[in-house]
Amino acid sequence: MTLSRRNLLTASAAGAASLASPAVVQAQETRNWRMVTSWPKNLPGPGVTAERLAQRITAASGGALNVTVYAAGEIVPPLEVFDAVQSGTAQMAHTASFFWQGRLPASVFYTAIPFGLTAPEHAAWILHGGGQDLWDELYAPSGIKPFMGGNTGMQMGGWFRKEINGLDDFKGLKMRMPGLGGAILAKLGGASVSLPPGDIYGALQSGLVDAAEFLGPWSDFAQGFYRVAPYYYAPGWHEPNGTGECLVSLQAYEALPDDLKAIVSDSCAAENALSVAESDWENAQALRTLVDEYDVKLRTFPEDVITAAREASVTVLDEAAAKDEMFAKILKSYRAAKTRLTPWTKAGTETFLAARGDA
Fold this sequence. Notes:
Elements: H1 5-27, E1 31-37, H2 46-60, E2 65-70, H3 81-87, E3 92-95, H4 119-128, H5 131-139, E4 144-151, E5 158-160, E6 174-176, H6 180-187, E7 191-192, H7 200-206, E8 211-212, H8 217-223, E9 231-234, E10 243-249, H9 250-254, H10 258-294, E11 297-300, H11 303-323, H12 325-356
Helix pairs in contact: 2-10, 6-11, 8-10, 11-12
C-alpha cells in the first residue's frame, strides 16, 4: 500500500495526539486536598477566611484541586495542624505562625512582633524585603511551604476581668497571650497561659486566666468574651498585625502542575488582601456594638504599661536572637525593614490621621 504524503501527515498528527492525550488527562485529574485549621468552624475572621480560601482554590481550578476544610478538632487538635501537614495527614492548614514558637522560635515573625510592623508594612517586608525567602527557609526542613493566607489587621490589647490602672496591676496577672507578647508579659510580672482559641472563653469564665487577648472586635464579639471580662484594652501592642498563614505540604505542592501552583499562590494573596479589608470593616461595627449595646468598657493601657512593654520587647527579641541562629537572621531582616518603612509611615499615615481627626 502506497503511503501518500497526506496519509503520512495524518498518521503523524494522530500519533502526536495519542502521545499528548495522557498529559491532557493528567492535567484534568482531580486532586482532593484536606485543609485543617486552628479555628472553630466559620469563626468570624480566620475561620471565614479559611473556608473562603478553600472555595477560591477549588473554583479557580475548575475543581481540579478540590480543597475540603476541617475545623479545629475535626481531624486534629487546633495546635497540631503543623504536624498534620508535615506528616501528610493533610495537604494544607490555616493557622497562625506563633503557635510554633516552641519548635521554631523564629516563626513568630510571620504573625506579628510586639511594637513591630503593621499589616501593610508586614506585607511589604514579606513581598519586597526578603521576608518570604526567609520564611521558606525556616519551614523547608519541615517539608512545608508557607503563604500569607489572611490577615485580621490591627489587634486589640485584650479582655480583662478587672480594670488596669498601672503597671503594678500586671504583677501576678494570668493572661492568655501567645507569641512574644507572652514573654513580655512575664517581664512585666505576669504569666502567659497557652490556650487554643476555642478554650479562651471557658478559661476567662472560670478564672483560670484573669485576661485574654485574641484578635479584634469582630472575632472577639463572636467568642462572647464581653460576657465575662468587661474591660477591653487598646492598643494591641503585642500584635500590630494579624497575618494568618496557609501551610502547604511541600511535597504535595511540588507535585502540582504550574497552573495549579499559581492558583494556590494567587488565591492566598487574594484572600490576604480581602480579609484585612473585611476585618477593618467588620471590626468598626463590632466595636460600636460592644460599647453601645453591651456596655463594654473601652480603655487604653496606662502609659507606664506601654513604656515598660516597649522596653521589654527589645530585650525579649535580643534574648531570643542570642539563642537561635535563624531567629537572629530573620530579626536582622525584620529590623532593617522597620527602619526603612517607619519614616514613611510617620510622614504619610500618622500625619494624615492626625490631620483627619475624628470627623
